[in-house]
Amino acid sequence: MSAHPKVDNATGELLFFNYSKQDPYMHYGVVDERNELTHYVDIPLPGPRLSHDMAFTENYAILNDFPLFWDPQLLEHDVHLPRFHPDIPSRFAVIPRRGGTEDIRWFEADPTFVLHFTNAYEDGDEIVLDGFFEGDPSPLDTGGTKWDKLFRFLALDRLQARLHRWHFNLVTGEVREERLFESVTEFGTINPGYAAADYRYVYAATGKPGWFLFDGLVKHDLRTGTEERFSFGDGVYGSETAMAPRVGGTGEDDGYLITLTTDMNTDASYCLVFDATRPGDGPVCKLPLPERISSGTHSTWAPGSELRRWDTAESAADAIGL
């Protein structure tokens, strides 16, 4: 199973994919609410690929074949060196969630690599998919130690990661794409209740120039094209921002944004909580953590009631109350 399986809270299903160096190079599967693997199909690819994320709508799963992959000749000698091929288009596989290999529809788009998608949904004959388009998926090597190389390679400004939208027409086969924002951001999250549905807000990370650290957060308004930002401050770096819907909330941004930060000036770590309707005002709560934590990437939020069920449930069905 690869990095980012998806949970559909409406059905309790886990949608996932994997990839390997053996033909057919990718598979897609579904685990139902009772922890049983109920669907598993081949997704044939031209060769080994490096897919990191996927997306889903009410009726479809969306997988990908991006032109950033291990050099085939070097791979024969067990050398894993990724190369970007700007002359090869990006490909997206749209498959019914319980569909077979023969049901896959392939759509071609501009060459890129997408580390993370934010959401997807159905709009009439179209599937709308949002994610972070990388203008330079393979930045030049700047030397240094292997860790220097890695942290510079993944710097958001060097990848030129920007929020992007693809439209796949299931009737005509047409593909349209558009850049949603010019600002460089990544690691976007949404209100989990709006997964696979038309939505308005993305909460993303801003990056320290030239280095893979998050120095602030931004709220993207997809309807107005505006942004609201908050900077953590000099020498302070945070995690991906989780969105916690308010219990009894009525709006998409009626909830809280939560991130964990580390202040490199004082070696102290904090949990910051923001009002999701106005994160630019700063945190409404700043909780000191008992120990310093390293700056991380992904995070998630789950209500305490769910965590207690997970701790005692004998199956996924029990855990989510089905």
Automatic annotation (TrEMBL):
InterPro entries: Carotenoid_Oase. Keywords: Dioxygenase, Iron, Metal-binding, Oxidoreductase. It is an enzyme of class 1 (oxidoreductase). Its cofactor is Fe(2+). The keyword Signal does not apply. Its EC number is 1.13.11.-. GO terms for biological process: carotene catabolic process. Fe cation binds at residues 4, 52, 116, 298. One of its GO terms (molecular function) is carotenoid dioxygenase activity. Binds 1 Fe(2+) ion per subunit. Belongs to the carotenoid oxygenase family. This is Dioxygenase. It comes from Mycobacterium intracellulare 1956.
